């Protein structure tokens, strides 16, 4: 019964992510081909943004797939780090593409080129409609699933970028000022570049086992210290295995009179870490204030 429920829990978001990825990948191809055909760097910039969304959806699907695979005696955390390596490579690739679009757009500002506004607007409107549809399908799952929420926000951001391209296409059609197209292209490319840099930084932080950016180490330590029975906390480490698995290890010293209940103290800490900080894998070592030789680790 539990296995069936768990499988169903994974299958529903997986089916929605698969649908979203298919639509997003098709939209990327449409905007990429349309951008070349219409001679629009703004549309090409939006295609780059859609490519990042397709990658984000792919990583979410990969995370769901890997979360269902068991660990082995050689890889005790499974293959979750593959998601992080893929994100790092994707960020580097998108940075190169965004940089090329910025350079191309600057060149077109100097020497404006005509743009086929009809195809440009048609492709941009398709991209906007596709992103709004995907965001609608992911919205209900994004409320309770951090992984799905990240995918939803990526798609929503691309929908906003598509609005900018559509607005630029309308202005271009009304005014005939070809410089509008590269200006919109630069704006969208800079947004893509910003997201790519953030993706690189986040993935590099995980690979270097840094403290997740949504957590403050001292705040987590203070929370553990306030648990009844805890005398001190030291040797605390927090890191991400991947985007959805956060781990913590720490040593606590328990008041002597609480040592018979040390298991309850540890379980209490685990619940708080999971509910308040979304730390879903914690390892707590215990010792007692009654012991003569305490830990030699530096205190945090």
- Counted by DSSP, the helix tally is 8
| Rough outline | elongated
Assembly type: single chain
Helix content: 55-70%
Q: Please count the beta strands (DSSP E, at least 2 residues each).
A: 3
In the CATH hierarchy, what is the class of the largest domain?
Mainly Alpha
CATH fold naming of the largest domain:
Alpha-lytic protease prodomain-like
| Secondary-structure arrangement, i.e. CATH architecture of the largest domain | Up-down Bundle
Q: How many domain modules? A: 2
Q: Quote the distance from N terminus to C terminus.
A: 43 Å
Q: β content, as a range?
A: 5-15%
Full CATH superfamily name of the largest domain: Cation efflux protein transmembrane domain
**Poorly predicted parts:** 1-10, 294-299
> The biggest beta sheet, please?
3 strands, mixed
**Helix- and strand-based class?**
mainly alpha
Strand and helix order:
HHHHHHHEEHE
Widest beta sheet: strand line-up? 1-2-3
